[in-house]
Amino acid sequence: MSNSESVAPKNKVAVVTGAGRAIGLGAAICKFLARDGADIAMWDWNVDEAGPIVEELKAMGRKVVLCQVDVSSRKSIEAAAATTRSELGPINILVNNAGISPEEDFVDISDEELDKVIDINLKGVFYCTQAIIDDMIEAKWGRVVNISSSSAQTGAKRMVHYAATKGGVIAFTKALAQEMAPLGITVNNVPPSTVYTDGLKSVEDRFPNGLQGYVDQTIPVKRMGQPEDIANAVAFLASEASGYITGHTLSVNGGRFMG
């Protein structure tokens, strides 16, 4: 090992935002990180469905804390960070997964809608990372993984506000990666394509010929993404094996965007 390589802490603590849905990216990410030995802090505004996920993580032998968090509020985030540190210890992995993906014709997007998407999808990433990054700086080791979107890479009609915030997440990733790299902290992002989650189930009937028809037209591998596809990529970027990767956009999209 060279003198410039940072040493991972023995006890890893991961915060995953937007982790409360039973069928969702956050829950799958929690399971993969727990599999790899991290204790888990699940942060979400809606924690009503999170009980079974908490029990599953505990059955894997991991410590778990569940926090109700509004990622658009610094006060809420700071309270959750304090609780997480108190119960689990310093935080060295952060997965910024929380987000909303509304659809609206561009000319109809109101100031209120625009502000809400920016506050959650972009400011939330900024606030959560600021609240946690000092732990990583002190440890001289850390992993930040942001969930962006292939919509930021390709564009997406009726989702201009959403795509713009996710494009901001990609730029945030690159800029912060340059600043944190000398400190032993990597910052990367994963832009999913169409992934079958609770959120997608709720709009399935809006696609002509169903979701499979949409997939056949847009996804070269001809299948829907699964939360586990994203979780696998996140777990790699959060691991010690990815220490020479930073500022990277790891597209997990079945070939929808190749670049």
List key phrases describing it.
alpha/beta; Rossmann fold; 259 residues; 9 helices; 6 strands; 44% helix
Helix content: 40-55%
CATH superfamily: NAD(P)-binding Rossmann-like Domain
CATH architecture: 3-Layer(aba) Sandwich
**DSSP summary: helix tally:** 9
Q: Within the largest sheet, what's the order of strands?
A: 3-2-1-4-5-6
Number of spatially distinct domains: 1
Helical/strand content category: alpha/beta
β-sheet strand percentage: 5-15%
Largest sheet: 6 strands, parallel
Which segments are poorly predicted (pLDDT under 50) over 5 or more consecutive residues? none
How would the global form be characterised?
globular
Radius of gyration: 18 Å
End-to-end span in angstroms? 32 Å
CATH topology: Rossmann fold
The H/E string reads EHEHEHEHEHHEHHH
CATH class: Alpha Beta
Question: How many beta-strand segments?
Answer: 6
